[in-house]
TrEMBL record:
This is ABC transporter substrate-binding protein. It holds the Pfam family SBP_bac_1. Residues 29-50 are annotated as: Disordered. Keywords: Signal, Transport.
């Protein structure tokens, strides 16, 4: 009870603090506001502080298809705005991003900024390496962001960076294949579907052609995507977070066992390949473009852009098109709901987290890191990146910069994403960092390997559930888990 009272008190405190910041900010919301000259809390920066040379480091993956190609220009534009500051960007692939960052964090010398999922905040806060920027952000910066995605960058009373986008992890379908199978994809986009409806639909998508099987559904479950399938579906099975509102670990619920049975059932039906555990993100997308599956996951809005790009290459007989690929009209689809639960879309909020080393940074350097993180997350940089991703803009400055940018999107897909965003899982900054870190550890050490074994047919759903429950009791205690 004491912990719950402390959590509620912290949430109220940060809510009041951020409300005061927003109230003082007016409605400028401009990337060219007072952030260039203002000290924390809107005070005046000293001439020495504003003119001192400083370098800010950033570790950034290929956030969008063309993001890393713009690094030179981003660095030049940043220095043009802040002549005394240098932004030094280190590129990383998605595959080695976490390893690179963790190596630097463990050595006590992380970059100032890293592009990371908001889900990892509790992990790095627990390690003492994230930098709380609450006292360094300006009101103009705060008011520029939509509230929901900004909340994802908070934990208890701290703000640990700026969000780049708020999107949903969805599924993607081949329009021609779905229509051939008699699936009303427009109805699904508008109204969603239950697991039973989804199960029957993907059965219809299984086709034998030229001695090969086209599957109804394929999801990447290997490598960096190992945790995605189960995590996304769990939100639609009545478990939107790893902890319920009473801070009890949720994956010991009977719904979790039911979900595991359902996901294994899709393989047993023949709707998914038996070798699903060997399918990584690259192979999943290759199978979709080459017509080896009707529906794929996980899917972000940017996949429509990627499919259109490959279609153009095929039309132009460009040799760089995916080998063996076919023209594809990509359709955004919601994940099914399980166990009678309400839709709860997996809101993916990634962004620019702010790190600190073993030593406390100077106020001047902290302010400069905030300027760099905000520069990356707003205005022209955000507009360009999010348009490349087909992602919704979450800053006023980004929306304004994007007004002159044109993108080719299917109207039905735009409406489908907007609908899913309305059902997006809200942020949970009330989850204490120690609980969040333990949940991440349990996921890494127990859930992911056991789920790999489950989809490979090596263990049963009950065996996995029992293993997760036993680990949860050890981590959170008998009274710290859901019992239903």
């Amino acid at each position: 009870m004491k912990r719950k009272i402390n959590v509620i008190t912290s949430v109220l405190a940060v809510t009041m603090a951020m409300s005061m910041l927003t109230a003082c900010s007016g409605n400028s919301g401009s990337a060219g506001g007072k952030d260039a000259a203002s000290a924390p809390n809107g005070g005046s920066a000293s001439p020495a502080a504003s003119e001192a040379k400083d370098t800010i480091t950033a570790l950034l993956p290929p956030v969008s298809p063309n993001f890393q190609k713009t690094f030179d220009q981003i660095q030049k534009d940043f220095t043009a705005k802040y002549p005394n500051l240098t932004l030094r960007i280190e590129p990383a692939s998605w595959e080695d991003m976490t390893q690179k960052l963790d190596t630097q964090v463990n050595a006590g010398s992380p970059p100032d900024i890293a592009f990371v999922s908001s889900d990892a905040i509790s992990k790095y806060v627990q390690q003492g390496m994230l930098m709380d920027i609450t006292d360094a952000v300006t009101p103009e910066m705060v008011s520029d962001f939509d509230k929901a995605p900004l909340d994802y960058m908070k934990n208890a009373k701290g703000l640990f960076g700026f969000p780049a986008y708020m999107e949903v992890h969805a599924l993607g379908g081949n329009k021609a294949f779905m229509e051939k199978a008699g699936i009303d994809w427009k109805k699904v986009q508008q109204n969603g579907w239950t697991y039973d409806e989804f199960r029957e639909a993907v059965k219809k998508g299984v086709v034998q052609e030229n001695g090969q099987t086209r599957y109804g559904f394929v999801f990447a479950t290997k490598g960096v995507a190992a945790k995605d399938y189960l995590a996304i579906m769990a939100k639609n099975a009545g478990m939107p977070h790893a902890f319920d509102k009473d801070l009890k670990y949720a994956y010991t619920s009977k719904n979790y066992l039911g979900l595991l049975k359902d996901l294994r059932q899709l393989i047993d039906d023949g709707s998914m390949p038996k070798e699903l555990s060997s399918v990584d993100a690259g192979k999943r997308w290759n199978m979709f473009l080459t017509g080896q599956t009707m529906i794929t996951g996980k899917g972000l809005a940017v996949f429509e852009n990627s499919a259109k790009t490959n279609n153009k290459k095929l039309q132009a007989n460009d040799g760089s098109a995916v080998k063996g690929s076919i023209p594809v009209d990509y359709i955004v689809l919601p994940a099914p709901t399980f166990q009678g639960a309400k839709p709860s879309s997996y809101a993916v909020v990634d962004g620019y987290l702010t790190f600190r080393g073993k030593k406390e940074p100077t106020p001047e350097h902290k302010a400069n890191v905030v300027k760099a993180a905000y520069f990356l997350a707003s205005g022209q940089v955000a507009a360009t990146t999010n348009n490349d991703l087909f992602a919704a803009h979450i800053t006023q400055s980004g929306r304004k910069a994007a007004e002159s940018m044109k993108i080719d999107r299917m109207p039905e897909n735009i409406a489908a994403v907007d609908s899913m965003l309305k059902n997006a899982t809200p942020a949970r900054p009330d989850i204490p960092t120690d609980l969040g870190a333990k949940a991440i550890k349990l996921e890494t050490e127990v859930i992911v390997p056991k789920f790999q074994a489950l989809i490979a047919g090596e263990i049963t759903p009950q065996a996995m559930y029992d293993a997760v429950k036993a680990a949860a009791i050890q981590a959170f205690g008998e009274n710290g888990i859901v019992k239903d």
